[in-house]
Specification:
Blueprint (H helix, E strand, L loop, with lengths): L31 H15 L7 E4 L6 H15 L3 E7 L6 H13 L10 H15 L2 E7 L2 H5 L3 H9 L1 H4 L4 E8 L6 H4 L2 H7 L2 E4 L5 H15 L7 H14 L2 H17 L7 H11 L2 H8 L3 H14 L4 E3 H9 L6 H13 L3 E7 L6 E7 L3 H8 L1
Parallel strand pairs: 1-4, 1-5, 2-3, 3-4
Antiparallel strand pairs: 6-8, 7-8
Helix pairs in contact: 3-4, 6-9, 10-11, 10-12, 11-12, 12-13, 15-18
Length: 377
Amino acid sequence: MKKDLLMWDETLFRDPEVLEIDYVPEQFNYRDDQIKELAFQIRPALRGGRPLNTVCRGLPGTGKTTCVKKLFEEITNTTKKVLPVHINCQIDNTKFAIFSQIYRKMTGHLPPPSGTSFKTIFDAIARIISKDEIVLLICLDDANYLLYENEINNVLYPLLRSYESFEGTRIGVILILSDMAVDFSKAVDARVSSVLCPTDIYFPPYSEEEVRTIIKERVMQGLYPGAISAELVNMVVTQTLKGGDLRVGIDLLKRAALNAERKAKRAIEREDICGAYQVSQYIHLSFSIKSLKSEERELIKKIAELARDKKDMSAGEVYNTVRGDSSIGYTRFYEMVKKFDLMRLIDLEYRAGTGERGRTRIISLRYDPLKVLEYLA
């Protein structure tokens, strides 16, 4: 019996890093057209010019971030005259936070935590660009979070119009959007759109065969031979397609292998995958909740609590409940509700009202309310 069990110093993982969600694979398949188009947009920077601005658009888990990171890695290894900076806007979603991260990339440290104005940071960034004669290439990943916070214009305007105050500065922007409902031509104001003029690069969802190939590659690179059967790999592929996000499948493989290791098994079994899926299916929910501010977390918590008893609720009904526990105004309340809708945490639907009520906004939670409360906790 013992020969079928892992010894204490044995593992199913050949390379655990391969099964991390943020792993950038050496072999990046099915995105050749997108990489070529993005490289074309960046090419002027390699000649000392200003890069063309770009919007990379596609659903979560379609390779947008990996595509940009692959190109940024190549640029870093090729030239010192272009400085690529990748910023996760789920984490850094204010003007000050974003420019502080740019400053850190250029100097090796963050600006002083207090007493430093935005102008001081921006002036320092512009002076370094001018002094070192470099081109700055900024990727704002999940830029839709800047829309939710009404910060997009505040961030893009100083970046794209820096040449007006500091002659010779050359800055290009790559915006990664996972929210397909966002219309950027309407999302930014005229002073920004007049200089942004981005090229759209679309990242379509992976097909079933593409998902299958990618999952098989991760299995081959990340797990030892025999750690999972072909039948169970197909099961992972099915669950990945159901979740609509490649990250679900990658996380599912990792958790299933850990479940099997916990029981000292030499191979993953069906029950390990089923157990792992109970967590992996909520990858999007987990990422979204982590990015919320405290007052937003309180509101989504209240919506989840109400949703335990009632699936559909009017916005007014929710607001009246929230207002009793806080001093939040209706304008701010509705801003947060619209943000949740854009983030795909809720569905916000307009329905015809009764009598003189006109149209009523109906809020429906997309996830099991108990799971939302669990992740909030």
